[in-house]
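Late entry, written up from scratch paper. The run itself happened at the end of the previous shift, but nothing got recorded in the book at the time, so transcribing now.
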Amino acid sequence: MKNILIIGTAGQIGSELTMRLRSIYGNNNVIAGFRKTMPSQDVLESGPKEMVDATMPERIVEVVKKYNIDTIYNLAALLSAVAEERPQAAWNVGVNGVYNVLEVAREHGCAVFFPSSIGAFGPSTPLDDTPQDTIQRPNTMYGVTKVAGELLSDYYFKRFGVDTRGLRYPGIISNVTLPGGGTTDYAVEIFYEAIKNKKFTCPLPAGTFLDMMYMPDALDAAINLMEADPAKLKHRNAFNVSAMSFDPEIIAAEVKKHIPDFVMDYDVSAAKKAIADTWPNNMDDSAARAEWGWDPKYKLPEMAGDMLKVIGEKHAKGLI
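Output as recorded:
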């Protein structure tokens, strides 16, 4: 990777991935592509930025040519809960947008990173130790778009030789970017509410186990996969990656270790519960470990301690 375009820089992963890639490859070699929502000040001030919409292929081509782009991280998507409210828009961004990026990559010799998700699975998928290769019949629009993106990426590699690579992310926990409409967002919100109010109302019921990952590991996973030796990649796309699995009771207990008077109650969202019930309790990520050395650094205790430390410092400064 020499000249990188990130589509979806203003999103949860994109904002932090941009800064990480700039620290590795140089500020001027990583282009922050955004649509309507402006990226953070750090992103805007540290390197080049361009308006790029995944649903507008002509604009993608313009930017690819302008900066001689060789790698595209296509992070544009509507997250799970939002996608259920706006399924047509979710399809346009999550399928038509992926097709547009792959076509530009085919024509201009770019590698492509595509982030899939635990949402690509469905109620008929094994929920425990979910295999790398298994049945995928999601019943959400978000999941449908992710499966389509996985298949399109595989097709463009096998049919046209496009260097496509991708991951199935679990829920991502970040202390930088606020949640944006995902089913796993409670695992971020709980830390903010614990710091500010010492109380949290959880939208998912006790016993709802979901795979999760701390943002530093999520960034490492994307970059390490794109830098991996292609000869070792049997599964180029849709690698299961996981770092931890917990339910609301377990993460609340971890928070209480740091804030003893923290309390949590429940106001279950039927819509979010219905989505979560079709997602894995935990994924088997042995293929990622074997093929490109996936090895997460953060488990629940380390993640929770760091989240509370960073968010606590922000709160003390009046930043949240």
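The mean pLDDT is 94.
(Scratch paper discarded after transcription.)
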